[in-house]
């Protein structure tokens, strides 16, 4: 074995030592496998990443949004200037605002594609109907977050887009007028509107989004991805059997530290 090969195998051994040590004490490896491994149908597996892509983009929005708050000021006399500062003076300001803007756009596209994939694969059928409903709530939340975010720039684009949006909303039967008045904080778009949109964009809806994402992922884990059960039940059974045998063999070979809880207790009790 060459030197590079030796170094590499030593590195592998060392990292295995560390992960085994942690696994023995915290069960972290098993936990990661439990949370990360999800069988997907063999055919078109890539299309099942659209939900994760959506989740990734939302995480990016949280991260860059928090960073924008380091400089953004949500008042009518400072909002535009604070963004001007972010774009021209602040370190990485252009990059961070650019990511927040583009990731918001890709996010809407990703949600649409994810929804279409679920629709065309029949992933919304029993017992997953409730996850579709949770998805619709997530979609509405994300759309309103995007809409309220646009107003925060307080430039001509954002301002007039908000006016148009409010006008459209005000035509909704029965509740339209009241809802729009509440959102605007009065009869016209002004300082109160910016404060409310800021509160909604930064606090209210992100806080509402998080638990619904949690429910979405919980239900997903409960039922598994639609389609995987047809192709994977047998393959998974085989895999588990192989893992079980491998674990057994390793146990037989090893005379080092045993890694099962049962052995531990036996050691301590002095039996065996
Ligand atoms: C915040 C937005 C959303 C996030 C982060 C998200 C995330 C995910 C993830 C990670 C999955 C797992 C596998 C996959 O990608 O197919 C999934 C599945 C699913 N999503 Fe979403 N999703 C969102 C929005 C939606 C929307 C708008 C709908 C529909 C209205 C929806 C309905 C579903 C359903 C029914 C499943 C189960 C599909 C199956 O088992 O094949 N989701 N979602």
Keywords:
272 residues, mainly alpha, extended, binds protoporphyrin IX containing FE
Our Rg estimate from Cα atoms comes to 26 Å
Q: List each distinct ligand once.
A: protoporphyrin IX containing FE
Mean pLDDT: 89
* Helicity level: over 70%
Classification by helices and strands? mainly alpha
The ordered H/E elements are HHHHHHHHHHH
* Number of beta strands: 0
Q: Ranges with pLDDT <50 over ≥5 residues?
A: none
| Straight-line N-to-C gap | 40 Å
Count of helical regions: 11
Name the beta content range. under 5%
Based on Cα principal axes, name the global outline: extended
Largest sheet: none
Written account of the structure:
- There is one protein chain.
- Helix 6 (129-151) packs antiparallel against helix 9 (191-223).
- It contains 11 helices and no strands.
- It is mainly alpha-helical and 272 residues long.
- The mean pLDDT is 89.
- It binds protoporphyrin IX containing FE.
- The site of protoporphyrin IX containing FE has 27 residues, from helix 3, helix 5, helix 6 and helix 9.
Question: Secondary-structure blueprint of this entry?
Answer:
Elements: H1 3-26, H2 28-36, H3 50-68, H4 79-88, H5 93-121, H6 129-151, H7 156-170, H8 176-184, H9 191-223, H10 228-253, H11 261-269
Bound molecules: protoporphyrin IX containing FE (HEM).
């Amino acid at each position: 074995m060459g030197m590079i090969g030796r170094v590499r195998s030593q590195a592998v051994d060392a990292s295995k030592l560390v992960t085994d040590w942690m696994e023995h004490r915290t069960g972290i490896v098993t936990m990661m496998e439990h949370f990360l491994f999800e069988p997907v149908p063999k055919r078109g597996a890539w299309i099942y990443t659209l939900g994760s892509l959506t989740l990734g983009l939302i995480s990016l929005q949280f991260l860059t949004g928090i960073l924008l708050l380091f400089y953004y000021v949500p008042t009518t006399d400072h909002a535009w200037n604070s963004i001007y500062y972010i774009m021209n003076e602040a370190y990485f300001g252009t990059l961070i605002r650019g990511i927040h803007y583009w990731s918001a756009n890709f996010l809407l596209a990703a949600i649409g594609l994810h929804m279409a994939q679920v629709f065309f694969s029949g992933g919304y059928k029993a017992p997953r109907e409730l996850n579709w409903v949770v998805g619709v709530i997530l979609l509405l939340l994300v759309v309103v977050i995007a809409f309220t975010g646009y107003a925060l720039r307080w430039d001509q684009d954002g301002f007039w887009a908000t006016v148009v949006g409010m006008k459209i909303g005000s035509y909704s039967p029965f509740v339209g007028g009241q809802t729009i008045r509440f959102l605007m904080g009065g009869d016209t778009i002004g300082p109160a509107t910016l404060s409310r949109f800021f509160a909604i964009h930064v606090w209210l809806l992100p806080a509402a989004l998080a638990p619904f994402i949690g429910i979405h992922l919980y239900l997903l884990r409960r039922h598994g991805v639609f389609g995987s059960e047809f192709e994977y039940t047998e393959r998974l059974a085989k895999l588990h059997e192989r893992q079980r045998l491998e674990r057994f063999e390793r146990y037989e070979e090893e005379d080092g530290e045993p890694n099962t809880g049962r052995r531990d207790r036996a050691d301590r009790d002095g039996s065996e």
